[in-house]
Amino acid sequence: MVIYFGADHRGFKLKEYLKDFLRKKGYETVDMGNSVLDESDDYPDFAAAVARRVSLDYENSRGVLLCGSGAGVNIVANKFRRVRAVLAASPDQAFDSRNDDDSNILSLAADYLEPEEALKILSVWLTTPFSNEKRFRDRLQKISQIELKTSRVVGEEEENE
Protein backbone atom coordinates (compact mmCIF):
# COMPACT_ATOMS: atom_id res chain seq x y z
CA MET A 1 0.00 0.00 0.00
CA VAL A 2 1.21 3.47 -0.91
CA ILE A 3 0.69 6.31 1.55
CA TYR A 4 0.55 9.77 -0.01
CA PHE A 5 1.46 12.78 2.12
CA GLY A 6 0.59 16.43 1.63
CA ALA A 7 0.93 19.52 3.81
CA ASP A 8 1.13 23.26 3.64
CA HIS A 9 3.64 25.35 5.60
CA ARG A 10 1.73 24.93 8.87
CA GLY A 11 1.80 21.14 8.59
CA PHE A 12 5.19 20.79 6.92
CA LYS A 13 7.30 19.94 9.98
CA LEU A 14 4.80 17.38 11.31
CA LYS A 15 4.45 15.84 7.83
CA GLU A 16 8.20 15.30 7.64
CA TYR A 17 8.23 13.71 11.10
CA LEU A 18 5.36 11.30 10.32
CA LYS A 19 6.63 10.45 6.84
CA ASP A 20 10.12 9.64 8.15
CA PHE A 21 8.68 7.47 10.91
CA LEU A 22 6.62 5.43 8.41
CA ARG A 23 9.55 5.02 6.02
CA LYS A 24 11.64 3.59 8.85
CA LYS A 25 8.79 1.15 9.54
CA GLY A 26 8.90 -0.02 5.92
CA TYR A 27 5.88 1.80 4.52
CA GLU A 28 6.00 3.11 0.96
CA THR A 29 5.40 6.85 1.10
CA VAL A 30 5.06 9.44 -1.63
CA ASP A 31 5.31 13.12 -0.78
CA MET A 32 2.93 15.23 -2.86
CA GLY A 33 4.24 18.45 -1.35
CA ASN A 34 5.15 20.74 -0.29
CA SER A 35 8.77 19.62 -0.54
CA VAL A 36 10.10 22.77 1.11
CA LEU A 37 8.86 25.04 3.86
CA ASP A 38 7.17 27.90 1.98
CA GLU A 39 5.07 30.34 3.99
CA SER A 40 3.17 31.41 0.88
CA ASP A 41 1.92 27.96 -0.19
CA ASP A 42 -1.74 26.95 -0.13
CA TYR A 43 -3.19 23.76 1.35
CA PRO A 44 -5.74 23.14 -1.47
CA ASP A 45 -2.90 22.35 -3.89
CA PHE A 46 -1.45 19.56 -1.76
CA ALA A 47 -4.78 18.22 -0.54
CA ALA A 48 -6.05 17.94 -4.11
CA ALA A 49 -2.87 16.18 -5.26
CA VAL A 50 -3.16 13.54 -2.52
CA ALA A 51 -6.92 13.10 -2.88
CA ARG A 52 -6.63 12.70 -6.65
CA ARG A 53 -4.11 9.87 -6.21
CA VAL A 54 -6.21 8.12 -3.56
CA SER A 55 -9.37 8.54 -5.63
CA LEU A 56 -7.73 6.87 -8.62
CA ASP A 57 -6.34 3.94 -6.62
CA TYR A 58 -8.58 3.86 -3.55
CA GLU A 59 -8.10 0.13 -2.92
CA ASN A 60 -4.29 0.27 -2.75
CA SER A 61 -3.49 3.66 -1.34
CA ARG A 62 -4.15 6.00 1.54
CA GLY A 63 -3.40 9.62 2.22
CA VAL A 64 -2.27 11.77 5.11
CA LEU A 65 -2.95 15.50 4.95
CA LEU A 66 -1.89 18.25 7.31
CA CYS A 67 -2.59 21.94 7.69
CA GLY A 68 -2.99 24.19 10.72
CA SER A 69 -6.54 23.20 11.66
CA GLY A 70 -6.82 20.07 9.51
CA ALA A 71 -10.21 21.31 8.37
CA GLY A 72 -9.10 22.90 5.11
CA VAL A 73 -7.31 19.84 3.75
CA ASN A 74 -10.19 17.63 4.87
CA ILE A 75 -12.75 19.74 3.02
CA VAL A 76 -10.71 19.62 -0.18
CA ALA A 77 -10.09 15.88 0.02
CA ASN A 78 -13.77 15.07 0.43
CA LYS A 79 -14.54 16.75 -2.90
CA PHE A 80 -13.03 13.74 -4.70
CA ARG A 81 -15.00 10.64 -5.61
CA ARG A 82 -14.27 7.53 -3.55
CA VAL A 83 -12.41 9.58 -0.95
CA ARG A 84 -13.51 9.31 2.64
CA ALA A 85 -11.32 11.74 4.54
CA VAL A 86 -11.52 12.11 8.29
CA LEU A 87 -10.24 14.87 10.54
CA ALA A 88 -9.17 12.83 13.55
CA ALA A 89 -8.21 14.38 16.86
CA SER A 90 -7.77 11.16 18.86
CA PRO A 91 -6.77 7.53 18.36
CA ASP A 92 -10.34 6.44 19.17
CA GLN A 93 -11.74 8.66 16.44
CA ALA A 94 -9.14 7.34 14.00
CA PHE A 95 -10.12 3.77 14.92
CA ASP A 96 -13.82 4.42 14.38
CA SER A 97 -13.21 6.14 11.06
CA ARG A 98 -11.41 3.07 9.72
CA ASN A 99 -13.53 0.40 11.42
CA ASP A 100 -16.92 1.94 10.61
CA ASP A 101 -16.34 4.19 7.59
CA ASP A 102 -13.29 2.70 5.84
CA SER A 103 -11.68 6.15 5.70
CA ASN A 104 -8.81 6.37 3.26
CA ILE A 105 -7.40 9.81 4.00
CA LEU A 106 -6.40 11.03 7.45
CA SER A 107 -6.39 14.78 8.01
CA LEU A 108 -4.47 16.14 10.98
CA ALA A 109 -4.43 19.55 12.68
CA ALA A 110 -0.75 20.41 12.96
CA ASP A 111 -1.41 23.44 15.19
CA TYR A 112 -3.25 21.37 17.79
CA LEU A 113 -1.32 18.09 17.97
CA GLU A 114 2.03 17.24 19.49
CA PRO A 115 4.12 14.96 17.25
CA GLU A 116 3.66 11.97 19.57
CA GLU A 117 -0.13 12.44 19.59
CA ALA A 118 -0.23 12.67 15.81
CA LEU A 119 1.93 9.57 15.52
CA LYS A 120 -0.40 7.58 17.76
CA ILE A 121 -3.45 8.70 15.75
CA LEU A 122 -1.70 7.78 12.51
CA SER A 123 -0.55 4.39 13.83
CA VAL A 124 -4.04 3.43 14.97
CA TRP A 125 -5.54 4.64 11.68
CA LEU A 126 -3.07 2.64 9.57
CA THR A 127 -3.41 -0.59 11.53
CA THR A 128 -7.19 -0.64 11.90
CA PRO A 129 -8.98 -2.66 9.24
CA PHE A 130 -12.47 -1.93 7.97
CA SER A 131 -14.87 -4.15 9.92
CA ASN A 132 -16.83 -5.04 6.79
CA GLU A 133 -20.06 -5.33 8.79
CA LYS A 134 -23.16 -5.22 6.64
CA ARG A 135 -24.52 -2.03 8.21
CA PHE A 136 -21.25 -0.23 7.45
CA ARG A 137 -21.09 -1.60 3.89
CA ASP A 138 -24.68 -0.43 3.37
CA ARG A 139 -23.77 3.08 4.54
CA LEU A 140 -20.78 3.23 2.24
CA GLN A 141 -23.02 2.17 -0.63
CA LYS A 142 -25.35 5.07 0.20
CA ILE A 143 -22.38 7.44 0.12
CA SER A 144 -21.39 6.09 -3.30
CA GLN A 145 -24.92 6.68 -4.56
CA ILE A 146 -24.84 10.26 -3.27
CA GLU A 147 -21.52 10.82 -5.07
CA LEU A 148 -22.99 9.56 -8.33
CA LYS A 149 -26.12 11.68 -8.01
CA THR A 150 -24.28 14.87 -7.11
CA SER A 151 -21.72 14.43 -9.88
CA ARG A 152 -24.57 14.11 -12.37
CA VAL A 153 -26.25 17.25 -11.03
CA VAL A 154 -23.00 19.21 -11.17
CA GLY A 155 -22.35 17.95 -14.69
CA GLU A 156 -25.82 19.00 -15.83
CA GLU A 157 -25.42 22.45 -14.29
CA GLU A 158 -22.07 22.95 -15.99
CA GLU A 159 -23.54 21.92 -19.35
CA ASN A 160 -26.35 24.49 -18.99
CA GLU A 161 -23.98 27.39 -18.27
Walkthrough of the structure:
This protein has 161 residues and is of the alpha/beta class. 52% of the residues lie in helices and 16% in strands. It has helices at 12-24, 43-56, 71-77, 91-99, 115-127, 134-160, and strands spanning 2-7, 28-31, 61-67, 85-87, 105-109. A five-stranded parallel β-sheet has the order 2-1-3-5-4, with helices on both faces. Helix 4 links the parallel strand 4 and strand 5.
Descriptive labels:
Ribose 5-phosphate Isomerase B, Chain: A, alpha/beta, disordered C terminus, globular, 6 helices, 2 domains, five-stranded parallel sheet
Topology record:
Blueprint lengths: L1 E6 L4 H13 L3 E4 L11 H14 L4 E7 L3 H7 L7 E3 L3 H9 L5 E5 L5 H13 L6 H27 L1
Parallel strand pairs: 1-2, 1-3, 3-5, 4-5
Helix pairs in contact: 1-5, 2-3, 4-5
Shape: globular
Regions with little confidence, pLDDT below 50 for 5+ residues: 156-161
Helical content stands at 40-55%
* Total of domains: 2
CATH arch. level architecture of the largest domain: 3-Layer(aba) Sandwich
Reported by name, the CATH topology of the largest domain is Ribose 5-phosphate Isomerase B, Chain: A
Oligomer: single chain
**So how many helices?**
6
User: Which structural class do you get from the secondary structure elements?
Assistant: alpha/beta
Order of the strands making up the biggest sheet: 2-1-3-5-4
Mean pLDDT: 94
What is the CATH superfamily label of the largest domain? Sugar-phosphate isomerase, RpiB/LacA/LacB
Q: Mind telling me the CATH class of the largest domain? A: Alpha Beta
Major sheet? 5 strands, parallel
